[in-house]
Amino acid sequence: MFMNINQFVENSLGQWRSQRSAHHLTFRHFEAIESVIDIVAVSPDDTAVIDLCKSYNIDPTQAVSPFQMTWEGHTDWDENAEMKGSCILVPIPDRTIPNRGKLLRDQGYAETIPAAADYHFTDDGTFVLLTSYDNAAAEEKIWFANPNLRFRVSLIKTSQGSGVVTASFSSEIRSLPAK
User: Which residues, 6 or more positions from 117, have their beta carbon under 8 angstroms from its beta carbon?
Assistant: First the structure.
């Protein structure tokens, strides 16, 4: 199944109910997380998109299909923990290698700092995102089983990438409007 970044973002727009299981290997702890994720398109002319591109010295006209992701959920690990946030994501396709590029984020996944990740698509349409942070590295894979069901696998590794700290699996179901 052929996939490019524009199709991936278009397929991802909407509200998703997510059920994630995470194994925190360092703490020998299993965590169940339920959340609602909203993914909406953002105009390439949006100030946040332009500012994020400029912060990485990237021409904002290279941005395609920018989007905002907002999430809110709860975990069984710490019932008082507030699990919500929002980030802007800006894909910058590689102009020389098809189906590869950078994904700029104003807030990362493993560390809440701005992050520029490398992405590519596998032959079966899986989106692979590799992010290096100051103290960790993240590897995420997202694929669609059908238009309203997608899966996500995430690994948080040590900064050298030699050890896995957290492994998680998510199933995400799109919320459809009532008929």
Answer: 102, 103, 105, 129, 130, 131, 138
The per-residue pLDDT for range 66-120, each reduced to its tens digit, is 999 999 999 887 777 778 899 999 999 999 998 999 999 987 555 567 889 999 9
- For 57, phi and psi rounded to 5 degrees? 55, 40
What burial class does residue 125 get, using C-beta atoms within 10 Å of its C-beta: 0-12 exposed, 13-18 middle, 19+ buried? middle
CATH T-level topology, domain 5-171: Lipocalin (2.40.128)
What is the number of alpha carbons within 13 Å of residue 27 lying toward its C-beta? 9
**14-43 pLDDT per residue, tens:** 999 999 999 988 878 889 999 999 999 999
Residues 64/42, Cβ–Cβ less than 8 Å: no
119 CB contacts (<8 Å, ≥6 apart)?
5, 91, 100, 101, 102, 103, 127, 128, 129, 130
If phi over 0 gives left and psi between -120 and 50 gives alpha, with beta otherwise, what is residue 87? beta
pTM (two decimals): 0.91
Q: What is the 3-state secondary structure (H, E, C) of 105-158?
A: ECCCCCCCCCEEEEEEECCCCCEEEEEECCCEEEEEEEEEEECCEEEEEEEEEE
**Which residues share a beta bridge with 20?**
33, 170
Phi and psi dihedrals of 17, rounded to 5?
-95, 125
